[in-house]
Amino acid sequence: CTPHGIMELLKRSKVELEGKRAVVVGRSNIVGKPVALMLMSENATVTVCHSRTRNLAEEIRGGDVVVAAIGKPQMIKGDMIKDGAVVIDVGVNRLGDKLVGDVDFEGAKERASLITPVPGGVGPMTITMLLKNTIKAAELAAK
After folding, report:
1. DSSP 8-state secondary structure symbol assigned to residue 18
2. Cβ-contact 19, 142 below 8 angstroms
3. With bands split at pLDDT 50, 70 and 90, how would you rate the model's confidence at 95?
4. How many CB atoms are located within 10 Å of the residue 57 CB?
5. Total-model pTM
6. Three-state SS for 106?
7. Strand locations in 1-143, DSSP E?
């Protein structure tokens, strides 16, 4: 549901993916790998990075679209974001009594053309896609 929600956010925000460079930070079976495949199906050139990627900051700086799903609070700093990039922050991390994403929102928002907040960005879209899938399953079962 989360990768589907990310794609829906990009679509509804009119983000053109064809020919763009997308960097997915995180290689989980739940978010990283599926969203990478979905981005490729929209003709983006996709790089998947992870905790052992060498020159991670350099890889991220090359992204027109950055999907952060690595599970480390505010790991991606503002200076790692290319000017005008679209940043999708999937991370939900506790930092003291506060929820934060994998991206340092305050630093990144100065460079990004679009950025999702945490909380309130991708999470509600995940829930929306879960409900959409539930309705579709019920309709199929009713046939």
Report:
1. T
2. no
3. confident
4. 12
5. 0.92
6. helix
7. 21-25, 45-49, 65-68, 86-89, 93-95, 98-100, 114-115
